[in-house]
Amino acid sequence: MTLRSLLAILGASAWVSINEFLRNQILLMPKWVAHYQSMGLEFPAAPANGAVWGVWSLVFAGVIYALLQKFSLRQTTALSWVAGFVMMWLVVGNMGVLPFDVLPYAVPWSLLECFGAAWIIGKVDSKP
Fold it and tell me: What is the DSSP-derived secondary structure letter of residue 26?
């Protein structure tokens, strides 16, 4: 792995982290908190939870990097979205802790998040 590749992954990870924070901690936090309260639970928002999401964003950016080595930008966006978000929503929904009313916001935003991460990797890691 080159320095350029590492920078591409770190840049994409930062993009993903910023988007996750804005979407879930700013825009959708009231929905998450209310849904968890309705189940008698407290929404997990401790610093340790944020750290795990930071690791998730780094791993996710690495997956996007690997996909982009074999697929087009459009294909990488679609594959990473399914692997990173659709599968997560299926699991979280199956566990009963997904407030489905977040999906009208989360679906388009997450698609843009995946596209942006793949685009960043493609631009930073491309040969001059």
Answer: I
- Pull the structure tokens for residue 39: 């189940």
pLDDT tens-digit readout, 67-125? 999 999 999 999 999 999 999 999 999 999 999 999 999 999 999 999 999 999 999 99
Residues 6+ apart with CB under 8 A from 109: 19, 23
What total number of domains does the chain contain?
1
Between the alpha carbon of residue 105 and those of residues 22, 61, 99, 114, the distances in Å are: 12, 21, 12, 15
Please answer whether residues 85 and 114 qualify as being in contact, where contact means their C-beta atoms are separated by less than 8 angstroms: yes
pTM over 0.85: yes
Q: Which domain holds residue 63?
A: 3-125
Compute the distance between CA of residue 39 and CA of residue 1 in angstroms, rounded to an integer: 45
